[in-house]
Amino acid sequence: MKKWWIMFPICILLSGCWDERPLRTMKLIFGAGMDMQEDDRYSLTIEMPIEGAGGGSSGQGGQGGGQGGQAQTSQVMSEDGITVRDSAYKLDRKVGGVLDVSKLRVLVIGEDGAEKGLYSFLDALYRNASSPLNAKIAIVEGKAGTLFQSEISGEQLHSEYLYKLIMSAEKESMAPVTNLQFICISLLDNGSDPVLPFMKYNEKNKAVEISGGALFNGTKMTGTITPDEMSAFLLLADQMGKELSFTIPADEGRKLTILIEKSKRKMKVDTTNKDHVTADISLDLSVRVLEYPPDHLDDEKKLNELNKLVSDELEKIFTQTMDKMKMADSDTLGFGRQIMAKDPKKFEKMNWKKSYRSADVKIRVKTKIISGGVIL
Amino acid sequence: MDEGVKTKKTISAQQLFFLILQTQIGVGVLSLPYSVHTESGKDGWISILIAGLFVQIGIGVIWLLSSRFPDKTLYEFAPLLLGRLLGTIVNALYIVFFFIVAAQMLIVFLYLTSNWAFPHTPHIVFAVIVVGITVYLIQENIRIIARFHVLMSFLFIIVLILFVFIIKHLNVYYLLPIGSEGAPAILSGTKQALFSFAGFEFLLWLYPVTKASSKAKWKAAAGASAIAAVFYTLLSAFVYMFFSLKKLNHVPEPVLYMVKAVELKMIERIDLLFLSIWAIFAITSFMSYMYLAASGVAKLAKAKHHRKAVYVLAVLILPITFYTANPEQSVNIYEKISTLSTIFLFAVPAFLLAVAIIRNKREEST
C-alpha cells in the first residue's frame, strides 16, 4: 500500500474527454413523432424540455413568451427529409446544441406511416448504440406531428404525459407491455405479429386517449381494435397486466362491470390436420364484480346464472377480437411460431398468412365469480 | 539447473480453476451466440454444448501429457520429446500463436468499446490503458496473476443476476423443435464455438506450478471448462430465446443488445454496465495470453525472468491497434485463428502425447 498515491494520477489519466457529453451542450429529445408524407418523405417531430423552466411556473418563466400565464417548458420542432436521419440532421441544424436521442421516452408513429411499414422508421434507432430501446412506442390516429403540436390541458411535457399514459394503460391491461426492443423482435419474426397501443387526440377534453390497439401484418399496420378487444387480446395472449376490467350487458338492459383477478390460459395449436390449422384456447378466469346494481350475489342460483352470462359475453368478445385479428392478417398470438416449433417443414410449405384467415380457433371461457367487493 | 525457480509449486488447485475459467471466458462472449448461429441457427446452443464435450477430451489429452512431466511446462518438455531443434520450433510456434490470439483479443476489445461506448476516443488510448495494466500485472509471478483472476471472478455472479431480469422476456418457442437444423449444421457450429473455449491449454503451463494432486489438477481444469460450457450454453440459449432468428441476423453482439432491453428502476443502459464487466473478462484473458507468450519468449532467450519479455511484447502489440479500422478484417483474422486454434489446442498436444507414449518418456515428480 506504499503506492497509494498512484490512485490520483490514474484517476486523471483514465477519464478521457473525447466522449464526454456535457449536459449543457446537449438538447435531449424526450418525445418524438414520426410520419410519412404523401411523397414518401419522413417527417420527424421532436420535443425537448427547456432547461430551467421545468417543475413549475417559477424560475425563468419568460422564456419563449408564456401563454396564458403558463411558462413554456418544452420546445417542439418538426422537419422532413428523405430518411429519418436526414430529418434529424436538418433539425440538428436548427437547434442550439447537439441533439441527443438517448433519453427518449416515447416514440409516436402516425397511422399513415405505420400502414406503409414500421421498420423503416425505426431502423436508425436500432443502429445507434446509445438509443434507448426501452422507450415506449405507440401509433396515433392521424399525424404524430400534430399530436405534439396540439394542446393538452394540465400537462406541460407531451412526452412525459404520453409516457405515463402508456405506462398506466399497461398496468390496467389497456395496452401490451412493449418497447422499441421487443417490438423489433416481433416485427422481424415471421411466426408472430406485434400489437401496439393505438391512441387519438380527444378535442373535447384536450387530452390523448388510448383508443385500443394497432394490428400489424409483418411490419405494416393493417387494422385496429377497440379497447375492449385489446383487453381481450391481452387475455388471449396471456399478457394481462395488474388489473383488467370489462363492462358487459347483463339481463334486462342492465350493465355489469367486472374485474378479472386472475387468468389462466392454455393454448394448443393442432397441426395434424392437413389443410387447415386448428387452435384451442381455454381461459380460466377469476372475476370480481365491481358494479352490479341488482345485488343478489349471495344467492347461489343467481350467481351461477351470472357466471354463465359473464362467460358467454366474454366468449363473444374474444371471438370478435379473434375475427378482427384474422381479418387484419395479424397473427398476434403467434400461432405461426407454434407451428414452426412443431412442424417446421409444414410451415415452410404452406402460405401461413393465407391459411391464418381460415384457421379454426376455438375459445372456451370458464369464469368464477369470487367476490362482489365489500358488500355481497 | 534453473528449475529451482521455475518448478516451485506456487498456486493452489482453486487458483488453477479460476485462472483457466477467466482465460476461457474472454472477448468472444458477446458475439459467440451470433457467430455460432451463422452456422447452426437456433440450435447453436447444442453446438456449444458439444464443443464443451470436445474440450473435455482435449483437457484429458493435455492432462495425460502434463502428468508425464509433472515438473515441466510445455516449453520445457517439448525439446525433450522432439529433440532440441523441433522442440524449439514448436515452442516458437506456440509463442506466435499466443501473441496472435492476444492481438486479436485486443483488436476485438478496441473495436467493441469504440462501437458501443466510446466512439470518439482514439483506439490508441484504450490500447495503452489495457496494455499498461496488463504489463503491470503480468510482470509479476503467476501467483499474483492467479490472485487477480480469482478476485475478479465475483463478476460472474453479477452477470447471472443481470440475466435473471431477462428470463421473463424469453420465448421458448424460438428454440423448438430442438435439433431441426440437422447434424451437419450443428457440427459446423461446434467448429465455430471451439475457439471460445481456448484457454484450457493454459493447463500445459500451470500443471507444474500447481500444488495439488494430479487428480485435483484435472478436476480443476475440467471443472473450469465445464462451467464455461454451461455458462456459454445458457447465454446463447437465452439469446436464441430472446431474439427471433431473423432479428439475430442483424445483431453481431446479441448479448449486449439483449441486456439493452432491460430497465431497472434506477439504472438505464445496462449494456454499458455489462460492457464494463465484460471488459474485465476480456482483459483477464488478454493477460493470460500475454503472460504465456512472454514466458515463452523468456524461455527461448534463456532469460531468468519474463519481465523484460513482457515489455518487449507490449511494445510490439501496440502498433496492431492501428490495424483495427476495419471490422471485416478482424472477422477474417478471427476465422483464421479459429482454425489455427484447433491445431494448437488439440492436435499438437495429442501428437506430443503420442510421441511420449511411443518413446516411453516419463518423469517422476521431485
Automatic annotation (TrEMBL), chain A:
Q: Where in the cell is it found?
A: Membrane
InterPro entries attached to this UniProt entry: GerAC_N, Spore_GerAC-like, Spore_GerAC-like_C, Spore_GerAC_C_sf
- Domain of life the protein comes from: Bacteria
Q: Does the keyword Signal apply?
A: yes
Q: What is its main location?
A: membrane
Q: Which UniProt keywords apply?
A: Germination, Lipoprotein, Membrane, Palmitate, Signal
Gene Ontology CC entries for this record: membrane
Q: Which residues form the Spore germination GerAC-like C-terminal domain?
A: 211-373
Which NCBIfam families does the entry link to? Answer: spore_ger_x_C (TIGR02887)
Q: Under what name is this protein listed?
A: Uncharacterized protein
Q: Which organism is it from?
A: Domibacillus antri
UniProtKB/TrEMBL annotation, chain B:
Presence of the UniProt keyword Kinase in the record = no
Listed under GO cellular component are:
membrane
GO annotation, biological process: spore germination
Keyword Transport: yes or no?
yes
Gene3D superfamilies linked to this entry: Amino acid/polyamine transporter I (1.20.1740.10)
Topology relative to the membrane, per the entry?
Multi-pass membrane protein
Q: Where are the transmembrane segments?
A: 16-34, 46-65, 85-112, 118-138, 150-172, 192-209, 221-243, 272-297, 309-325, 337-358
Instruction: Please give the superkingdom of this protein's source.
Output: Bacteria
Q: Which family does it belong to?
A: Belongs to the amino acid-polyamine-organocation (APC) superfamily. Spore germination protein (SGP) (TC 2.A.3.9) family.
> What protein am I looking at?
Uncharacterized protein
